[in-house]
């Protein structure tokens, strides 16, 4: 008798739009409140996933993701108790936190090309990639065969897509306001990403 291959399914939800997003600032590990549009889009995302039987829920411990998850919990009955984790935080931009994104985009792109160089008083791309990969490795070890909800940030979702589904490094990753991702992993770490 052949053993059944256990896959891992992870539903990824980005936090709702924040005041910092509207102002165009790099938030990193700082926080600003959700906007009315962010609240409304989070409720629409919750409706997309309301019938899914989640085995576990993980959430970044930053307030914009915690607030997003609270809105989801308000729309979906019987979710498992969440685990709040630093592993799902956005990259730490260090001294660049709070600056206008368009002003520092050349620096961000340079750091993506040289992932071992940390942001001043922040995190390197390599450290961030290791943190994100470590989270998914933990899920594969502890929750293989399960369906997991993870509420997180753009950088975590972008990194997961690049590390596990292999879009070319030059390809822009887009996450629409109402997008929910499902990443399906097999034990050999091949993964498919579906947007709904």
The amount of helix comes to 25-40%
At the third CATH level, what is the topology name of the domain at 8-17 and 34-93 and 130-195?
Answer: Rossmann fold
For the biggest β-sheet, the strand order reads 3-2-4-1-5-6
Query: Quick one: overall form?
Result: globular
CATH class of the domain at 8-17 and 34-93 and 130-195: Alpha Beta
Q: Which range does the strand content fall in?
A: 15-25%
Per CATH, the superfamily of the domain at 8-17 and 34-93 and 130-195 is Phosphoglycerate mutase-like
Query: For the CA atoms, what is the radius of gyration?
Result: 17 Å
> Structural class, from secondary structure content?
alpha/beta
Major sheet characteristics: 6 strands, mixed
Rounded average pLDDT? 94
Q: What distance lies between the first and last C-alpha atoms, to the nearest angstrom?
A: 36 Å
| Poorly predicted ranges | none
Query: What would CATH call the architecture of the domain at 8-17 and 34-93 and 130-195?
Result: 3-Layer(aba) Sandwich
What's the number of helices? 6
Count of individual beta strands = 6
What is the ordering of alpha helices and beta strands? EHHEHEHHEHEE
Quick recap:
The protein has 196 residues and is an alpha/beta fold. It has helices at 19-23, 36-49, 63-75, 101-113, 125-143, 154-164, and strands at 8-14, 56-60, 82-85, 147-152, 181-185, 191-195. It is 38% helix and 16% strand.
Description of the structure:
The protein has 196 residues and is an alpha/beta fold. The chain has a domain at 8-17 and 34-93 and 130-195: Rossmann fold, CATH 3.40.50.1240. Helix content is 38%, strand content 16%. The protein has six helices and six strands; from the N terminus they run βααβαβααβαββ. It has helices spanning 19-23, 36-49, 63-75, 101-113, 125-143, 154-164; strands at residues 8-14, 56-60, 82-85, 147-152, 181-185, 191-195. The chain has a six-stranded mixed beta sheet, sandwiched between helices. The longest helix is centred in the C-terminal third of the chain and has 19 residues, at 125-143. It is globular.
């Amino acid at each position: 008798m052949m053993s059944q291959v256990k896959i891992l399914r992870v539903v990824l939800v980005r936090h709702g739009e924040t005041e910092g997003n509207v102002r165009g600032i790099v938030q990193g590990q700082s926080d600003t409140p959700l906007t009315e549009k962010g609240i409304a889009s989070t409720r629409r995302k919750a409706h997309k996933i309301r019938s899914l039987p989640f085995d576990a829920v993980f959430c970044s411990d930053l307030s914009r993701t915690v607030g997003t998850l609270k809105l989801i919990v308000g729309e979906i009955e019987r979710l498992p108790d969440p685990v709040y984790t630093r592993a799902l935080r956005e990259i730490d931009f260090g001294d660049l936190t709070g600056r206008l994104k368009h002003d520092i985009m050349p620096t961000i792109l340079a750091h993506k090309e040289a992932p071992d160089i940390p942001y001043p008083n922040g995190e390197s791309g390599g450290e961030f990639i290791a943190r994100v990969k470590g989270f998914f490795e933990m899920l594969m070890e502890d929750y293989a065969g399960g369906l997991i909800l993870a509420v997180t940030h753009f950088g975590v979702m972008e990194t997961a897509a690049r590390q596990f589904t292999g879009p070319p490094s030059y390809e822009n990753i887009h996450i629409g306001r109402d997008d929910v991702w499902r990443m399906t992993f097999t034990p050999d770490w091949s993964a498919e990403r579906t947007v709904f």
